[in-house]
């Protein structure tokens, strides 16, 4: 089984950490994508430094939030 996780906003990192750990215990292949909506160490990178949260496999999709003018 393979799982694809896409992270966009900061609260998702904290919620996902226990899920990622539990799936890893069952040897489920996981791919992590960080869209970098909140880019920078102060906004999101700090969560990947926490124990149990692996580094993303794909970092920064280059997508920007769309705000109509």
Sequence-ordered SSE layout with sheet pairings:
Elements: E1 2-7, H1 10-25, E2 29-34, H2 41-48, E3 58-59
Question: Could you characterize the architecture of this molecule?
Answer:
The chain is an alpha/beta fold. It is built from two helices and three strands, in the order βαβαβ. The protein is globular and about 35 Å long.
Structural class: alpha/beta
Describe the strand arrangement of the main beta sheet, using strand numbers: 1-2-3
Oligomer: single chain
Largest sheet data: 3 strands, parallel
Number of helices: 2
Unreliable parts: none
Q: Strand-and-helix sequence, N→C?
A: EHEHE
Overall average residue pLDDT: 75
Count of β-strands: 3
Measured as a percent range, the helix fraction is 25-40%
Strand content: 15-25%
Distance between the termini: 43 Å
Shape: globular
What's the Cα radius of gyration?
A: 13 Å
Sum up the structure in keywords:
single chain, about 70 residues, alpha/beta, 2 helices, 3 strands, about 35% helix, about 20% strand
Offer a concise description of the structure.
By secondary structure, the chain is an alpha/beta fold. The chain has helices at 10-25, 41-48; strands spanning 2-7, 29-34, 58-59.
